[in-house]
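Dear colleague,

Thank you for sharing your sequence with our group. We've completed the structure prediction you requested, and as agreed, I am returning the results in plain text so they can be pasted directly into your records. Please verify that the sequence below matches your submission; if there's any discrepancy, let me know and we will rerun it promptly.
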Amino acid sequence: MVIMKKILFSIVYSFPGLSVILSGMRNKGLWLMALLFVFLLPSSFKAQSSFIILPGSSENGAFPGPYSNAPRQFQILIAHAPISLMTNKYITSISFSLQGSYTNAWPLIDTTFGSYEIYLSKGVTPPNIQMNFAANIVGTQTMVKSGSLIIPAGSVPAGNSSNPYAYTLVFDTPYLYTGGNLVIEIRHTGHNNPVDVPVRTIDTNTMVNTTYLSACWQQGNGITKFNFPFIRINSVQSLEGLGVKSVTVDDGFSVYPNPVKDYLYVKGDKEITEFNVFNAAGQKILSQKNNANVPKLGTFSLSKGVYFLQMIDKQGNSTSTKFVKE
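Please find the predicted structure tokens below.
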């Protein structure tokens, strides 16, 4: 274990019977040494799953956004450095921690959000955050979770519990993080529980170095900065064999990942025999027969952009959905 002062974030990789914790800080030399330590590990020892907890320092504030009973829209901005070990991995879920003073699990009763949406994208550097949600987005914003959300009674651990991140917001579509600054945006309609609980945060306005983290939220008729919430980001090396949830399109098909880099996978009850890809102008630019048990489309030849996928089953039925090539 490497212990450093002035911690800004923690990175944890899980190994059989072993945990390696890297504590990031403002000293770039020590941070690079920590990164080198991980990269020098034999590849056979690297785990397929990992997580990062940000910011890793002591809490000094609170924000009710993730679990608010009023509608909320907010963004958290994360620089590349503290999450660089997740490059080319799939982010599958996130978790928040209740304020440390909350000693009991929440909620007392089953609680429902009418709509809970999570979007991931690349973004501007945290010090350049704008009080304009769209201005903080770079490239395409990807919806990774949508629909209603039911939080069972007692499922969010107390803030002072041994694992305060035990309740997880699992994505419908894993997000392939290819590097750069990351923006996580959450939009929800509020829940039906009268009890409003805050998550733990740090005040980015008083941090000596705001290079890595920033956040903003919709307040009244404007957008303003707010504390950065403690967050656990979970990722996996590969989606194959993971059995994760993905976006469901017409006729019950599920397509992932979106955006896609190399392969687009399809799950469904019907047997897919053919893929066709069309560009935004409606021109067919790729066609591929399928003979795999888990249907997948190779997207190596496609340029970055938005496309439409047509899936044809052995009965000749056609289903279509949109996807983004990174």
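Summary note from our side: The chain has one helix and 25 strands.

Kind regards,
the structure core
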